[in-house]
């Protein structure tokens, strides 16, 4: 069966006029489909370009984060090494303190003079925390601008 015989009642004749209208409609639909497919390809290409740009941006960001993580890791290793050295130094100083205390005990025993022997350094000793001021910052006397003049 031809497509013209399936058409609505007005086109059953199969004449050349109806065939030209059908041909025109098919051609119009074909052009519309081509244009729609072209727009679809353009949208897909644009989306692909956006994804490629995002991949490049994310790779650059990933490289920056990896470099920062490596930098932090090396800083951590350096601080950890410094802590190990400081712990060893603290143990050495503790041993020296015990040795000095032993000498002081011997001197005290033989001289009969009482010595102030500390078994351990006090926790609040400012020498143990050189990064802190030995007095509160609020208690520091602050003078006027005239104190800065020569």
UniProtKB/TrEMBL annotation:
Q: What are the record's GO terms for cellular component?
A: nucleus
Places the protein is found: Nucleus
SMART domains xref list:
BRLZ (SM00338)
> What is the name of this protein?
BZIP domain-containing protein
What Gene3D superfamilies does the record point to? 1.20.5.170
CDD domains reported for this sequence: bZIP_plant_GBF1
| Keyword Acyltransferase attributed | no
Please list the residue ranges annotated as the BZIP domain: 23-86
What is the top-level taxon of the source organism? Eukaryota
Q: Source species, please?
A: Urochloa decumbens
Q: Name one GO molecular function term.
A: protein heterodimerization activity
Basic and acidic residues bias (residue ranges): 21-38
Spell out the residue ranges making up region: Disordered.
1-46
- List the keywords (alphabetical): DNA-binding, Nucleus, Transcription, Transcription regulation
Record-linked PROSITE patterns:
BZIP, BZIP_BASIC
Q: Name one Pfam family in it.
A: bZIP_1
What InterPro entries does its record include? Answer: bZIP, bZIP_plant_GBF1, bZIP_sf
């Amino acid at each position: 069966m031809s497509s013209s015989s399936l058409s609505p009642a007005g086109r059953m004749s199969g004449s050349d006029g109806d065939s030209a209208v059908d041909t025109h409609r098919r051609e119009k639909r074909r052009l519309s489909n081509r244009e729609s497919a072209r727009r679809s390809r353009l949208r897909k290409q644009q989306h692909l370009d956006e994804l490629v740009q995002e991949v490049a941006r994310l790779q650059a960001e990933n490289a920056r984060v990896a470099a920062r993580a490596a930098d932090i890791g090396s800083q951590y290793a350096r601080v950890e090494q410094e802590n190990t050295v400081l712990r060893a130094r603290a143990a050495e100083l503790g041993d020296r303190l015990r040795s000095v205390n032993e000498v002081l005990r011997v001197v005290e025993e033989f001289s009969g003079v009482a010595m102030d022997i500390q078994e351990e350094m006090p926790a609040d000793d400012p020498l143990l925390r050189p990064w802190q001021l030995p007095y509160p910052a609020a208690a520091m006397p602050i003078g006027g601008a005239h104190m800065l003049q020569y």
